[in-house]
Amino acid sequence: MLPVPPPCHTAVSTFLKCACMIQDTALKERIVAAASAVERMSQWYEATAVSRCLHILRPEQFRPEGGGMGEQLAITSDDLRTELYTKRMAKPGSPGRHIYDALRQAAPNGICPLCAVGVVSTLDHVMPKAIFPALAVTPLNLVPACGDCNKTKTDRAPATAREQFIHPYYDNLDGVTWLHAEPLFEDPVRIVFSVRTPPDTDPDLTARLTHHFTALKLAERYAAHAAQELLSQAKLIRDLRTLPDPGQLREHLDQQADTRSAANPNSWQSAMYRALADSDRFCSQAI
Prior knowledge:
mainly alpha, two-stranded antiparallel sheet, 11 helices
């Protein structure tokens, strides 16, 4: 779970910071006049994100055209997406770039909170700016992400409660071990990942985890990492199997699982090493 952006980075302050250097006086006045409407839309977004109800938001309500944002505004959706976000927040050297960088750097160790494997390189709009332009520069709608997650997620918005992605700012999954791994005894051994939650888990959370896992293609990405890890560990595993004590390999795998779980109980490493330690066949079969 990521720490929420600091109070200095509110929706309206970020909006006005991005607008402050617009040279076209008429455009600047039109955009600044929309600040209160953007703040209202951002507060609505925040309330629905907290209650896990982002699916109730409708794109037409977050576009300035036709009074969609609750009042008649003289700006367009493109003004919000391009003039503010692209040109004056995401662009290096722009007036809002320090906020962009602060949000991007909030990910612990620079690792993407959406997949837990990729290196953060951009910001992802939880509710896509293409269809929710009023949230284009809302900090709570921007999360650090790797390029793979940002591209794979695309411009999709949830249609139902169970289609909501896991929100790094609002979804606290502490205590919920949901990532499952299973070895397939092929040549070489292959690890298959899936979502498996405890029986008492809220069904909606399980469905959201499954949607998140599937949409971001985490099974394939984790399997690739696991294959590389097994290749790098192959000699050590073979050596441990030759020791007089047959429990040495299992002890090693248990230690790896415990160490990885202490950092992240839902990492692909945690799931993989736990599955291998629990497998009698793996602990006795040469690879």
